Amino acid sequence: MKSSHTIKDIQTRKKGILLVVDEEEFFLSPDSYSDHFYYPGKQLSKEEYQDLKRASKDKKAKDYLLKLITSRRYTHQELYNKLESKYHLGYKENELLLLPYIQSQIIDDKAYALDYAESKIEQGYGKKYILEHLKVKGIKEEILKDPELEEIFLLSLDQIDKLISKADKSKKNKTIEERKTSILQFLLRRGYSSSIARKEIEHFYSSLSPEEKTQEARNRVNLLKKEADKCYNFLVRHNQLDARKKKDTMIRKLLSKGFHYEEIMTILTEDYEFYD
Question: Which of 21, 204, 176 is nearest to 196 (CA)?
């Protein structure tokens, strides 16, 4: 490294004060520039050159941080990681850059966690999913256990009922048993606990009105007949199975669809015949 460097030019730009040193360009903030005595032709010592490089890098990092903060919302850890990845600053340097935004509550992890939870609950996600994603974003344990966040999760039970109702309407071509299994898997993928999901599913179906229960009973009869016809026609075309195996296969198939053994045997006895 050269023992001295020469300032060839100084210009005022939108980005700040541009210093051309040898063949390199450095941008400084007006404050940083005014703290030093720079002029064209000045010879910079090794220490002065290193100070200039650090000040220019610091300005780039500040500009980058401001761009991030004004583009979208981030947690403290997300911003720290981005600064570290791009500029490889030390812990103290990163924290000093973030400090003004923390003090002004522009960076506020608790507010972020509360708003994130409310937003995700409205989108149909549960507590487990939300907490896991907040941990990935660097939210600390004390915030994850904050009573205000817990209160939001309690209110989310209203949302799970809407999810169950919507999923139920989209699966009317299945038995209630099949619907329950499918909806449970859906809720588990959305981050709801198994105990809460099962409880709310059972509550939903046990709370059906008399008219809805009557309609479900009619729907079940039609579904059973439809599935039985489909299975019977398939088995009849496969003559390699004897009558007993055809009947057993049909029973197993219909049981897997959520129908009960008694109702299956009733329809088999009344509507279908098996021959060798």
Answer: 204
| CA–CA distances in Å: residue 80 to residues 62, 73, 90, 104, 221 | 12, 13, 10, 17, 61
Q: How confident is the model at residue 269 (pLDDT cuts 50, 70, 90)?
A: confident
Please name which of 89, 7, 97 lies closest in space to residue 45, comparing C-alpha atoms: 7
Q: How far is CA 216 from the centre of its chain?
A: 35
Tell me the C-alpha distance between 215 and 218, whole Å: 5
Q: What is the pLDDT of residue 118?
A: 92
Is the Cα dihedral 137, 138, 143, 145 positive or negative? Answer: positive
Which sign, positive or negative, has the C-alpha torsion 190, 195, 201, 203?
negative
Alpha carbons 37 and 39: distance in angstroms, whole number: 7
The C-alpha atoms of residue 79 and residue 74 are separated, in whole angstroms, by: 6
With 60 as the cut, is the pLDDT of residue 182 above it? yes
For residues 187 and 223, give the distance between their C-alpha atoms in angstroms, rounded to a whole number. 25
